[in-house]
Amino acid sequence: AKTGVAEFQNMNNAWPSNNSDAGIAEAANHSGEYVSQVSVASNVVTITFGSGVHNGNTITLTATDQGGSISWACASLSISDNQLPTICTGI
Question: H/E element holding 33?
Fold first, then answer.
């Protein structure tokens, strides 16, 4: 999802409105072992967990255009910073 958001921004100088604009499957089609859905709205990717210790919680990956490159910030209102999943490290 991050790649799709960044590519859309770089090509259109605008953020994608939804998953389709970002070139990814609909939100519920991203389910896996721990994730129940991934959704895109503008510069925010929201990941919802469907099982495991974070069941029902979400994280957001927020993109910022840095004049040609995209930076990302990861946050959650329901998961403490020291328990954020590895997707949040190094971004």
Answer: none
pLDDT tens for the chain, residues 1 to 91: 999 999 999 999 999 999 999 999 888 887 788 899 999 999 999 999 998 888 899 999 999 999 889 999 999 999 998 888 888 887 7
- Angstrom CA distances, 23 to 2, 14, 53, 59, stand at 10, 14, 30, 20
Count of the separate structural domains present in the chain: 1
SS3 of the chain: helix, strand, coil, percent, to 5: 25, 30, 45
Helix (H, G, I), strand (E, B) or coil at 1: coil
pTM of the model: 0.89
Asked if residue 83 belongs to a domain, the reply is: no
4-19 in b/e form (b: 16+ CB < 10 A) is bbbebbeeeeebbeeb
